[in-house]
Amino acid sequence: MKKQLLGVAVIGLTLVLAACGDDSTASGSEEAEQTVTIGYFPNLNHAPAMIAKEKNIYEDHLGDDVNVDYQTFPDGSEFMTALAAGEIEGGLVGPGPAMNNYISGVDVEMIAASSTGGTVIVSRDGSNIQTAQDIDSDTFISPRVGCTHDVQFETYMKDLGVTSERTGGTMNHVTGKPAQYTTMFENNDVDVATAPEPWGSVLESKKNANVVIDSDDISFGETLPAAVFVTSSELSDNDPELVQSLIDAHQESIDYTNDHTDEAIDMTINAIDDITGQKLERDVMESAWERIDFESDINANTIQAFGDSSYDLQFLKEQPDFSDLVNKQFID
């Protein structure tokens, strides 16, 4: 059963009409062009989107009669709002926001993965937190409540018997943009950060942060896509050729990212600088790169298990059924 967007018009391609002249020149006006907008974040998990933009990979696959625009987001909530409103046709987002919005009735499909890994839990220097077992009545930060990194961390901590105040536990939870974590560590506003790379490595390098849980050890760290390519079922049903072109471009960008590591690192550093105003040092990015695997395959069973954990943590109000959330026809 396809989830349909409630109360929002069907998502379609935005048409940008060529300027029309007066009656004497109207017959010579250009045909309308499609505009496809791709969304992504300034996180390392989203590097394939940054590479694709720099190398014009989407433009090459979509052809000369399609304009390609790009829009960046600070978190999954704003990305999903844009997808629901038809402001973007698709792009990269964490699986958590996609699941949450699917449950709420938003028309969204996961059609490929982008990367795995990249979530690292670090503690502030001076917090006296060296291991996860040291965390109790402390303040942790994530980009959003119930985002992918939040669920990974809280799942791990729940297995240790520690939960957040939201569910009657002791940990205090605040939210903020990952690019601002360094300031919050400086001001002693938080003790622990659920940091998507490269921001975990930034905190390690610049603020002497301690790695409490590494990306391979965090819950779902080796199996869960840290970023997924999503679109609407309306678009994949009505224009599968367009969606196939998007995924072919996405796959090419992943291949390029894996095959040209040095160049990809430089392009990602420059892209993050353009978006956030923070120029990351190359050794920091190289460290962060070691925690990421770029791949397009997506496992529906892992997505369901992650959703079940989100429900157990009370991020979801009902037991989820994600059997129709993952659509692998474009990567199979």
Describe what you observe in this structure.
49% of the residues are buried. By secondary structure, the protein is an alpha/beta fold. α5 (148-159) links the parallel β7 (139-142) and β8. The chain has helices spanning 47-55, 57-62, 76-84, 95-103, 148-159, 181-186, 199-207, 233-238, 240-259, 261-276, 282-289, 300-312; strands spanning 14-16, 33-40, 66-72, 90-93, 109-117, 119-123, 139-142, 172-175, 192-196, 210-213, 225-231, 292-294. The chain is built from twelve helices and twelve strands. It folds into two domains: 32-118 and 223-312, 3-Layer(aba) Sandwich (D-Maltodextrin-Binding Protein, domain 2); 119-213, Periplasmic binding protein-like II (D-Maltodextrin-Binding Protein, domain 2), CATH 3.40.190. Mean pLDDT is 90; it is low at 1-30. The strands form two sheets. Strands 1, 2, 3, 4, 5, 11 and 12 form a seven-stranded mixed sheet that branches. A five-stranded mixed sheet has the order 8-7-9-6-10, with helices on both faces. The chain starts with 13 loop residues before the first strand and ends in a 20-residue tail after the last helix.
